[in-house]
Amino acid sequence: MAPLLSVEAATKRFGGLLANKEISLAIEPGEIVGLIGPNGAGKTTLFNCITGYMHPDEGRIAFDGADITHTRPERICGLGVARTWQVVRAFGRMTALDNVICGALERTNRVAEARARAADLLDFTELGARTHVAAANLTLADKKRLEIARALATRPRLLLLDEAMSGLTPRETAAAVQLVRRIHEELGVTICVVEHVMEVVMPLSHRVVVLDGGVKIADGRPHDIVRDERVISAYLGARRAAR
Ligand SMILES: Nc1ncnc2c1ncn2[C@@H]1O[C@H](COP(=O)(O)OP(=O)(O)OP(=O)(O)O)[C@@H](O)[C@H]1O
Ligand SMILES: [Mg+2]
Q1: What is the pLDDT averaged over residues 135-147?
Q2: Which atom from ligand 1 is nearest to the alpha carbon of 38?
Q3: In this predicted structure, what is the pLDDT of residue 88?
């Protein structure tokens, strides 16, 4: 089967800084892929390039066989790629419902249809009781859920989650993991998660890709990644020592 997403030797520079250096990876339909690496490794930059908020200086990105290397974000969203932001970007003064309606309107011009879809997704993400609350007044955990609901409203086939669980309590994190599993199982969405919490990434991911200093240093099953000497010295070892 052709990969859903294919990144081929993508390079992104900021002046003299190589944020992504010739990164190649493929995501197959139905996978949950973990994307990990130390701060500044280039994870968010790669998400930005995949979603069209930035374009790689070199290399090629294809989604479902279509070249999206220089495609604009709205068009990439239209093709079926959605993302959440590391720093939540809800429209604070709008209600939770209206935030999700904004996502749904990417797919339909009919407001009633968008509203119904948004209401369904608030229920799915267990935010039904927050429907009419202004986004700014939600807890961090609920803001992160709201971003996921808004992303789902665009009917993605590939969902990119950029630290959707960072800053959450252990209980909130466990609930967020459950939500990611339900998105995968019940909605059939392929998922790529950036997370620093290894206890979350390893059991959740079918495959883990590791970046360090803009370079892909490993790509494999979680079982193998946790034993990979290069990954341990670049990232996992430092995290264990920090505890
Ligand atoms: N818009 C930008 N302009 C200049 N430099 C940038 C920009 N965005 C990212 N960088 C730099 O590119 C490198 C990779 O950053 P990126 O945000 O992709 O890392 P990350 O892996 O997401 O890190 P973190 O885990 O801290 O979120 C860093 O050195 C960062 O400072
Ligand atoms: Mg980041």
Answers
A1: 96
A2: 25
A3: 80
